[in-house]
């Protein structure tokens, strides 16, 4: 349950448009709902600003369906990550409310209204090569689901750096930038040397043998010569989006008076 939903429910109880009994029924399973294979944390959105998210890669179709159905009963965003097309097709038969984004491997529903989410500006997702788009799209779509305006700039790696220079205005306008790159992982350093916004680097497992499944890109990003670059785990577009969400949310109205 997200903060707006809970606030609306409490206001309706206060205005006598909802009885206490009706409110208690809506709060069934709050703050957590114990299930056969999961313990669903309905309070996470209130605590952290990020809803419970289903990691789909190692879960069965039946497990995902059960958890997703419980989440769909709530008004908060629903996100299932790392879902292949075959698994997604089976899940959609039971949960047609979900929408599948194949390039990112995401199932989602109940996208937050960008007009309701107070943000510091527009986020930007950048990736070095076409092979990195899967991870970049995971980051972009996650941010969109959380209610952020997001732009994208793909296939502008350092092998053809002029492609980035032609689009510098997008870097200057962004409030937070996620940079996704494999191979030697050099692009985040370049972007951080051009932009004022915080840069979140995402190494990918794209590359030839000596890339070691993304280790080379990870180490390159951790050793960035540009100051202030934050680095998440290999292929972790979702984690980068969560970090960007925390940076880009405007919580000024929530500050104690």
From TrEMBL:
Domain PurE: 121-251
GO process annotations (BP): 'de novo' IMP biosynthetic process
SMART domains in alphabetical order: AIRC
InterPro entries: P2CMN_synthase_LarB, PurE_dom
Molecular function terms, GO-annotated: hydrolase activity
Pfam families: AIRC (PF00731)
PANTHER family noted in UniProt: PHOSPHORIBOSYLAMINOIMIDAZOLE CARBOXYLASE-RELATED, SLL1489 PROTEIN
Protein name: PurE domain-containing protein
